Amino acid sequence: MGRNDLDRIAMQTVRKYSMIGYGDGVVVGVSGGPDSVALLHFLSSIAPQYNLRLHVAHVNHMIRGASADEDERFVEELARSLGIPVTVERVDVPRLARQLGVTVEDAGRDARYGLYRKICVQRGFSRAAVAHHADDQAETVLMRILRGAGLRGLAGIPPIRKLDEGISVIRPFIEVSREQIEQYCEKRRLATRTDPTNVDTQYFRNKVRCELLPLLEREYNSNIRAGLARLARLASSDEQYLEEQAVRLLDAARAAVLGSAGAADLRRREPQVELDREMMRQAAEPVASRAFALAFAEAAGDRRDLYWPNIDDMAALARTGNVGNSIDLPGSLRARLTYDTIIIERVAEPAREGADEPGALAESTAEQIDVPVRVPGAMPLAWAQVTVYAACGERSALERAPGAHADPDADTSIEELACMANRALADSGFRGLRVDASGIGRKWAVFDADRVDPDALVVRRWRAGDRIRPLGMAGAKKLSDLFVDEKVPRPVRSRLAVLAMGDEALWVVGVRASGRGTVTSSTRRLAVFAADTDDCVDDA
After folding, report:
1. Is 264 helix (H, G, I), strand (E, B) or coil?
2. Among 145, 209, 255, 259, which residue's Cβ finds the most Cβ atoms within 10 Å?
3. What is the pLDDT of residues 330-362, one digit of tens each?
4. Taking the domain 5-222, which CATH number applies?
C-alpha cells in the first residue's frame, strides 16, 4: 500500500458524496481508537484546503472506569496538540440504557450523536464526522442479513445522512479498510488507545466481527468483506431508485384523487392521505410498498412504527378489499377503501371515563385549554390536582446558592442543580416550595432558558402524537410508549400534566423530563419548573 492510499481514497469519498464545502464547521467524534484518531488527522490535514472549522467531541461512557478516564485525557491532549477545541461529556451509559430499556450499544450511540447535535447547534456547524469504515460496513450488512433485513437494511451505513435540520453526519472513511487505517497510524506514528470492549463478544457486533466474519473469510470467501461492501453499494443504489419511483407514484396517485382541487385542497386534508386505488393496485410491488410507507409517514409524522406486515396489509386492501373495508395501522391510524380511493387517516376515538386516552377525564371544555406558562408564575391545574411553578434566574447569581460551586466550566451535578433550582424558586417568591436531587425529572425539571421558547410553552393534558426526547437519545419517543416503559397506570395517564412546546413534551409532570435544553457549562440562564404534588409515578 502506498503512503497516501488512505488520503487518496478518503478524498475521493469526500468529493464523490459532496461531504464538505468550503468554510464548513465539522464536529469530529473521537474515541481515541485508531479509526477516529486517523480521521481527526486526515480532516486536520485538509482543513486549510477547505477552510474547515473543526471541533473534537468525546463521550466518556463511564463503562471502563479508570481506563475510560485515561481515554478522555488522551483525546483532550490530542485535540490541544492539533490546536482544535474539544468538548468532553460524561454519560453513565449503562444507567442510561437501563432507564431507556435499550442496549448499552444503543444508549452509547444516542449519547454520542446527542453531543454532536448539541455542539453543531451551539457553534453553527453543519457537519458531524464519524470514523465508520469499510469493515464496519461489512459487519453491519452481515448483521442485517442475519436479522432478515430488506433492501433498505442491506444498503448498510450511508456515507452521509441527515442528523437534524441543517446538520449531516459524514463518513469519509466508509470506503477505507481497517487495515489501511492501522497502516496509516503506524506510518505516521500516531498514538492511539485500545478499547477492550471492542472484542467483548457479549455484544452482537463484536461477535460478528471476532467470530463469524473470520470464519466466513477462512472457510468460505476470503474476500467476503469487499463482497459485503459491494452488496451495500448496490443495494443503496437500487433502494434510492425505488424510493424515487415511490415518490413519483405517491404524487401521481394523490394528484389523481385531488384533480383540479390541487395543493390548496391537499393542505385542508392533511394529515389524511388519499390515493387512487387503481394506480396503487397496478404499480409494481416494490414501488407500491414504498409508496404506502411514504403515505403512512405523511399521516403519522414518521414511519418508525411501521413494519412490513402493515405494508403488506395496505397492499392487500388495495388489491382485494371491498368498498368500506378498513385495516388498523400503528399510531392510531387506519387505511380504508372507498369506491376508487384508499385513505390513510388518523382515528379519533371517543373519550371515556378511565380510558387511556388524552383528556379522557376532562369534565369541561375549559380543562382542555392550553395554559400559557408565565415566568415567574404558578399554573394551577385542578384536573391534574397539581400546580406547576415556573422560575428563571441567571446562572451566575444562582451559583451563589449554598451547595453550588462557582466554577462555570465544571460539570454540574444534580445536587448542585437542585441548589440552584431552589434559589431560583425562592427568588421568584415560591419560598415554601423546595426540590431535591432525587426528584429531578419527576417533581421538578430544569432547562437552559436560552434553548427553549418561553412564548411557546404551555401546560396541558397529553395528546395523541405528543413526543419527548429523553436525555441521551438521538430521537423522540411517543408519550404513549413512554408510559408503557415507565409502567404508568392507565387511570393515571389521562390526568398527567405536560409542559409542552407544540407537540414536543419538555416535561411530563411526575414521570420524566426531556433532554432538550440540557444544562451545560455554557448555560447562562436556568428555567426551573416544579410541582407541588406527591402524586408522581413511582420508579419501577
Report:
1. helix
2. 209
3. 877 889 998 889 999 887 644 444 444 454 433
4. 3.40.50.620
